[in-house]
């Protein structure tokens, strides 16, 4: 094999690897969960809003009352959303556009909207969403088997 062929093959492999790395970062999908729940940070209790409407891109808005949770699927490492917040019943809603980078190491991301709007640090309003499975206990079950003699004496 001559040097020119080898050079083209190595170059083609490098180009494919660069494209694959870019697509891995750009095309990574995340599920983002939005909470409108009470939370506390450094002894400070943050109350939920009366109502929050979260719109991410052209997806159907998530309408959250106190204690509700919504979700949206995004692609890439940037989240841009519009929050329409009603502080109390009968108040006029006010809109906020929020953009943030999404941590690469989290698949399911939980964002507490009241803590986000208070201007708290990222670790106060963002965490990884982990599905809790019910604990069925670790009781050992005894397996009972009946042995039947199928022998010839009847």
Task: Describe the structure using short key phrases.
154 residues, alpha+beta, Immunoglobulin-like, four-stranded mixed beta sheet, four-stranded antiparallel beta sheet, 3 helices
Describe the structure.
The protein is α+β, with helices and mostly antiparallel strands and 154 residues long. The chain is 21% helix and 36% strand. It contains three helices and ten strands, in the order H-E-E-E-E-E-E-E-E-E-H-H-E. The protein has helices at 3-26, 113-117, 122-125; strands at 29-35, 39-41, 44-46, 51-56, 62-65, 69-75, 78-86, 94-101, 108-112, 126-128. The strands form three sheets. The protein has a four-stranded mixed beta sheet. The longest helix has 24 residues, at 3-26. The mean pLDDT is 84.
The CATH topology name of the domain at 29-128 reads Immunoglobulin-like
Please summarize the sheet with the most strands. Answer: 4 strands, mixed
Number of strands: 10
User: Rounded to an integer, what's the Rg over CA atoms?
Assistant: 27 Å
The run of helices and strands is HEEEEEEEEEHHE
- In round numbers, the mean pLDDT is 84
Low-confidence spans: pLDDT under 50, at least 5 residues? Answer: none
Q: Using the 3D structure, state the CATH architecture of the domain at 29-128.
A: Sandwich
Determine the N-to-C terminus distance.
82 Å
**Helical percent range?**
10-25%
Q: Given the C-alpha coordinates, what overall shape results?
A: flat
Helix count, DSSP H or I runs of 4 or more residues: 3
Structural class: alpha+beta
Strand content: 35-45%
Largest sheet strand order? 6-1-9-10
The CATH class name of the domain at 29-128 reads Mainly Beta
